[in-house]
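Morning!

This is the sequence you dropped in the shared folder:
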Amino acid sequence: MPELHSPLKDRERKHDLAIAYKNKEFKPLHVIEDNYNYAIFSEGTITQGVVYLINKSSNRIEYEMHYVTDYMLGLRGVMQYSVWRDPHGEFTKDVVKRVIFEYLLKHYKVVFSDRYQTKSGIELWYKLIPEAIRRGHKVGFINLYNETDDWYVSGPILPWIEKHDAWSNRGSRADQKVFAIAL
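The structure's back. Tokens below.
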């Protein structure tokens, strides 16, 4: 996995990136959304990169998510990691859902959870899984250590999530367990 980058590092470069995008001096890999107030775009390559949301009036980055392509149990997809969102950002409401469902799944077909989740990351995935099912996506649990997977079929979703809580046991190879959302 590439080196994790703190969203607070390279503040000057990010400010310059926001201004360059706004002034059309920078061509991103993909433009996800762009309007008068903000833009969501990706920078990098098809195998790894960063998605940003910039506030055009303040020239500030309000959201940043790193991703890398990955291959797990025969599934080729993308793993999101090192997600940061400005809690006071004007345009960050539901940005994670928009990036995962309207960008990553359209380009990669499978999105894997990070193997190392913070408390807010776990809460996010607990919200994303039911949303994925509501949108008609497949949701699965992958245990890389045992090389097994279990895809949700039907019934109450919360007991299924809790049964497979990938991050409840931080020891015991918890870093080998992930959730997946697929088309």
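Headline: The CA atoms of residues 97 and 128 lie 7 Å apart.

More detail when I'm at my desk.
O.
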